[in-house]
Specification:
single chain, mainly alpha, Alpha-Beta Plaits, three-stranded antiparallel sheet, 4 helices, 11% strand
C-alpha cells in the first residue's frame, strides 16, 4: 500500500528536484500526485514500498536539515553583501499592491473598531 511521504503545497521546484534525486540515488520508488484540475486536492509525494518508509523518512529529515543550513548561509551571505530583499524592496517592486494592502488593512481595522467607538460614545 502506498504511503504519503511529503505534502507538496508550497514546496519550491528546486527542492522537489532535490528530493527526487535523493530518492533515486537510494533506489526508493516514489510517485507524485497533483492538485487536480481545480487545485483543491492535496499534491503529495507517495512512497510505493512501505518497507522503505523509515529509510525515506530518515533521508528526508537529513535533507531538510542540510537544505535549511544551505539556504540560511546563502541568505546570510546576501545579507552581508546588501543584496537580501527587504520589506522596502518588495514595496518598491509593486507600490500599487503595497498601497492597496495598506488600505485594506486600515479598512479592516476601522470596521473592527467602529462598533466599540459607538458603545463608548453612548
Amino acid at each position: 500500500m502506498a504511503t504519503q511521504l511529503v505534502k507538496l503545497r508550497q514546496v519550491p521546484a528546486d527542492e522537489l528536484e532535490e528530493i527526487y534525486a535523493l530518492m533515486e540515488a537510494h533506489e526508493i520508488e516514489v510517485y507524485e500526485t497533483g492538485a487536480g484540475n481545480w487545485g483543491i486536492s492535496m499534491p503529495a509525494l507517495w512512497l510505493s514500498n512501505d518497507d522503505q518508509l523509515e529509510q525515506a523518512k530518515d533521508l528526508l529529515k537529513q535533507h531538510e536539515e542540510e537544505r535549511f543550513q544551505r539556504m540560511r548561509s546563502e541568505y546570510e551571505a546576501l545579507k552581508e553583501e546588501g543584496k537580501a530583499r527587504t520589506f522596502l524592496d518588495i514595496a518598491r517592486e509593486n507600490p500599487v499592491r503595497y498601497v492597496a494592502y495598506i488600505v485594506m488593512i486600515a479598512g479592516l481595522v476601522y470596521i473592527s473598531i467602529v462598533p466599540f467607538w459607538a458603545l463608548l460614545g453612548e
